[in-house]
Specification:
Blueprint: E1 3-6, H1 10-22, E2 26-32, H2 39-43, E3 46-51, H3 62-72, E4 76-78, H4 88-96, E5 100-101, H5 106-113, H6 115-123, H7 140-150, E6 154-158, E7 167-170, H8 176-191, E8 196-200, E9 206-214, E10 220-232, E11 235-241, H9 248-264, E12 269-277, E13 283-289, H10 296-303, H11 307-315, E14 332-339, E15 341-342, E16 348-349, E17 352-353, E18 356-358, E19 365-369, E20 376-377, E21 384-392, H12 395-408, E22 410-412, H13 418-426, H14 428-432, H15 439-443, H16 446-471, H17 481-495
Parallel strand pairs: 1-2, 1-4, 2-3, 4-5
Antiparallel strand pairs: 6-7, 6-8, 9-10, 9-12, 10-11, 11-14, 12-13, 14-21, 15-16, 17-20, 18-22, 19-21
Bound molecules: adenosine-5'-diphosphate (ADP).
Amino acid sequence: MKKILVANRGEIALRIMRSVKEMGIQTVAIYSEADRHSPHVIYADEAVCMGPPPSKASYLLGDKIIKTCLKLGVDGIHPGFGFLSENAEFTRKVTEAGIIFIGPSPESMEVMGSKLAAKAAVAKYDTPMVPGTAKAIDDIGEAIEVAKGIGFPILIKASAGGGGKGMRIVEKAEDFEEQMQLAVNEAVSAFGDGAVFIEKYIASPRHIEIQILADQHGNILHLLERECSIQRRHQKVIEEAPAVIMTEKLRESMGQAAINVARSCNYHGAGTVEFLMDENQKYYFLEMNTRLQVEHPITEMITGIDIVKEQIKVARGEKLSFTQADIKPNGHSIELRIYAEDPQNNFLPDIGNLQTYRPPIGNGIRVDDGFREGMDIPIYYDPMIAKLAVHADTREAALQKMKQAIRDYKIVGVKNTLDFGHWVMNHPAFIAGDIDTHFIKKYFTPECLDKELEEEEAFVAATLAVQFLEKNKVKFDNATSSSSDSVSSTWHKNRVRR
Ligand code: ADP
C-alpha cells in the first residue's frame, strides 16, 4: 500500500495517520465542512471535503469516499471506529473497487454485527454465554416463560444494538410485554431491525474484554485484556490494562475463548471480544467488536505493539511476526476518555469553544486528541475531546501519574470529564480494584466533584506553599508580601483550569 485514506475524523483519524506515516505510506483525510480546520485535515498529505457537517452528508457517504480513493490513487481505506467501520456493504464495495479495506471481511462483520448470529456462531466452541434466548423473540408468552426460568431481573436486548442503546431491564413478569414493545420500537428506530432477545441480567458484573489480532493465514493471537467497568449509560469512560482481578489461569482461559470467537467467524485483523464477569469470576461472552477499539492505547502501552500498524500489515497479507508467548504485560496502563460532557448533569453532552486547551506531556503520558485551543466542539459528532492514557510500572504508580496528568490538563470553555476522572482515581473502591459496571451509579453524585475540587485546591495550595517555602528558605525571615501575592495568583490560575 502506498496511499491510505482514513475514513474518519478527529483524534482517531490523527492517531491512525501517525502510524501510516511512520510506515512510509501517504495519507488522505476526509472532512466535513465543520472540520475544515481540524488537525487531522492539516496533518494529512491530502484532504478532501465530503460535504456539510451532518455525518450522513459527509463521513457516511461511502460511494463518494470510494470515488475519492479511485481519483487519488488510494489503495487502502482505514475506517477507524464508528461511521463506516462496521458496515459490511461498504466493505464489499471497497473490495469490489479494488481497494484494500483495513479490517475484517464483510462476512465476519455480518456475523458479529448481530448479537444473535454471533451467539449462534460461537456456540459450537462451547463459549460460556449469558443464559437467555438464542433467537429473536416472536412469541411473548413463550418469552415470559423463558424469563421466569432464568429469573428476574432480565435484560431485553436488541440484536443489532450498539453504543449501549437498545437494552431494557425488566424487573417482573407483569412488565415484560410493555418493556418488550418499547425495546422493539427503540430497536427499529435506532438500528432498523426490531429483533430482540432475552439475557439474564448479571447483577454486578465487570466488563472485561480481550484484544484479538489475526492474520489471513489462520494465526490468531490475543493481546491480553482490558477492564472497562467504569461506565455511564452502558458505555465506557475509564479503562485499564491489565485487569486487577486477572490471574494467569483466567487469562489463558479467556484468551482462548476469545481466540475461538474470532475463529468462529474466520476473523482477520484487530478485533475485541467482550465478556461480562460475575462476582465468582465466571465469565460470559457478550459480543465481538470488529474494529479498532477506542481504548486500544492501553493495550499498546502494556504490550509495546502498535495495533494500527499490525492492522495494516495483516491487510496487506503479512503473517503476524510474533507468537502468543511473546505477549507479556509490561506495567500498568489506565485511560480516561475526556468527553465534552457534564458529569454533574447526568453526563449530558456539552458544546462550546475550547478557550483554553493544554494537554499534559511527560514520560508515560499519551494524549490522543483531535482539537486545538480555540476550536469549537461541534454538535454533530461523538462528544469525545481526547483520550488520556498513562503507563507506569505498577497500578499504584499509574494512578498517581493519571492524577497528576489530569491536574496538568487545562481545559476551559467546555464541561468535561477531567474532574470526574480525578475523583475516580481517588475513590477507595477504585483504588482497591473493587469495581463493577455500576460503580458510577453506586458512588457518584454531583456533589462528589465539589468536594473533589475543594480537596484539589487544598492540595494545590499545600504544594505551592511547600515550593514557596523551599524557594525562600534562605531569605525566609525577609519573605516579602509580593512573593506571597505571586503564590496566591498561581493558585488562582490553577483553580480556574476547568
Ligand atoms: P453494546 O453493543 O450496546 O455496547 P453490550 O452487549 O456490549 O452492548 O453491553 C454494553 C454494556 O451493557 C456492558 O458492558 C454491561 O455494562 C451492560 N450489559 C450488557 N449485557 C448485560 C447483562 N446481561 N447483564 C448485565 N449488564 C449487561
